[in-house]
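Q: I'm a student working through a structural biology exercise. My instructor gave each of us a protein and asked us to get a predicted structure, then write a short paragraph describing it. Mine is Cobalt ABC transporter ATPase. I'm not confident about reading structure output yet, so if you can add a plain explanation after the tokens, that would really help. Here is the sequence I was given:
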Amino acid sequence: MLEFRRVSGGYATGEQVLRDVSFSVAPGSITALIGTNGAGKSTALRMANGLLKPRSGEVLVGGVPTRDLPVSEIARSVGFLFQNPDRQICCATVFDELMFGLRALEVDEDEARGRVERVSAEFGLDLDAQPYLLNRGTRQMVALASVVVLEPALLVLDEPTCGLDFRECMAVMGAVRRLSEEGAAVLMVCHDMEVVADFAERAIVMDAGRVVDDGPVFEVLRNEAALEAASLLPPQIIGVSLGLARQGSRAVPGVATASTVGRMADALEAAVRGDAR
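A: Happy to help. First, here is the predicted structure for Cobalt ABC transporter ATPase. I'll explain a few features afterward.
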């Protein structure tokens, strides 16, 4: 659905942000772009939805180079969430905000209302509420709901869980996962490594405009050299298992390689049962 082929480029100021970047995002998958501020992640997102064009290389959406498509055409298949919801919200009620894009795409009114009711219930939103009177976390959810309701083939998210509490985070990422399971390709920038570990299938590490690692999420999050190069820390449970691996722990098989709490718990439970026997 999305492919970067040796992409270099940046902004109109002439600054070179991306340097020879290549990766792809397949339908039905969630891919996380991770790295520190200034690594080039947000620039890559803006290339993905056509707001920026590469100086060299190609960005393809649905097999078509973004250079050959106006942003209005790309927007029909690419949903984009800005990091700041106030840059995205423009209507007086949550209902109108969620209906705005559907009306622009001329979706049948009954179908549009059905989508709005389903997504608003999924996100726990009051359709009569005024977005600008809501707190930061709820405005973020409104902005994302206005993208999710469009059911885009490619969902591009810039820090989707920023400013959310745990309940809101789980609701938002649950909706993102649902779209992915229904066939959408998802590319997200996320600083929360726990969210990355819980929801992404793949992770791409960026540093200074270049890709320094790209692969299955748990392989990437256990690549200490790549994470250190990008000034990142792994999720807590992976950090614990890596620490045990460095100490050469063999007392409990599986603990030193566990990538999730569930796998760590399974390894410990298996060890306890073994001791009991």
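A: Here are two points you could use in your paragraph. The beta strands are 2-10, 16-25, 30-34, 56-61, 64-65, 78-81, 154-158, 185-189, 202-207, 210-216. The first strand starts at residue 2 and ends at 10. It's a good idea to check both against the output above yourself.
Q: Great, thank you!
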